[in-house]
Write a structure and sequence with these properties.
Structural class: alpha/beta
Distance between the termini: 17 Å
Helix content: 55-70%
Radius of gyration: 31 Å
Oligomer: single chain
Order of helices and strands: HHEHEHEEHHEEHHHHHHHHHHH
Length: 416
Amino acid sequence: MTRHQLFLVARQTYMNRMKTFGFWSVVLAPLLILLVIFGIAFAIDATKSDEKPTVAIVNNTALTTYLEKNKSVGARYTNVTSSAKAKQALRNDKIDGYLTSQHERYHLTMAKDAESLSEDTLQTTINQYYMVNQAAKLHLDTKQLQDLIQPPSFNSTVYSNNGKTSAGGVSSNAANSMLAGGLGIFIFIFLTAYVGMIAQEIANEKSSRIMEILLAVTSAGVQFFGKLLGVAALAITHGIVYVVAGVIGYAFVPDNKYVDMAKELLTGVDVGFAVMTGLLAIVGIFLYMILTAIISAMINDLSQVQQAVSPITYMAMIGYILTFILEGQPHNMLINTLSYVPFVSQTLMPARLGLQYANMTDAFVALVLEVIVLIFLARYGLRVYKKNVLTYSDGNITKAALLSLKGLFSKKTIDD
């Protein structure tokens, strides 16, 4: 196997795929989806009504005056003398809703198509009004009332396995959960895209009988590793496109609540986490590509690609699914063990790392195990590939693949 031939096959595979619509559709489709979602959200924000709802207060002038002075609810208020008049005004679309008060009980009625009103803010304001009235009955002055309702200061921090502390609370947990889930989705989509690509690459040449010609002038090792290197370069190019798009988006997209949410989500992402996640994902993708190349050598024509790739996709789904049940289970023995297992760790370990259930040492161990299995597959998988690449057999590919993969552990196969 000469280096020149290896890079020639890798370059040809890379350039042929780079020119196809299929590759760029895989690269650009997620970006276009995000752009469309952002555009729709921006359009909705830009066109939403700023009209304040009109709320009638039934026979309570004092409450009406208090609400008018308090601007936090964001509504217009009017006083009516009875519930009957309020209902009639609501039916005639003159008001958006009305508020009744009787024996210190309050009830809000709003029209189905009313302008947006924050009921939580309104309830808080009514609570304040109630406390002011109760303070007056108890002859408490303003300072005494403030001392009574002033809550104590409380905050929390989270101590993670990597020895760092961060702000705690629901928002922090939600951000970490979203990050873990997003990583699982991204890695799974990335992985399945390139598993299918390497399968089609091998199946194209084998089904058209070009493989016999290629192996007459080059070795099976050149074809095997050359195609893997070419598709791996495509995956790296794909990742670089996303990094560049992210940098450009961060620099030029104007600030709004959605951009702020994304920034808040990525606040806890440091360089070490990003690098380790990238390495785990890249090595994991290489593992799946080598396994796919071995199994794809048994494909007779393109119609069998899906049959060959399906078991690999199902295996990739294990880590993907577990990322969604990971939150709240930092000590689950099964999940923790699987996060070190190659073919699963590329998705599960970054999710554990993002949720701070694992530290960088754990991730490094998972990465080393991935690399060991990668070297094993690359070395001994080539021999299985050589055995099957020129073989055309009928029957179930999955069964044949499982029987063939036994050769990875067979001394006879290794010594051939």
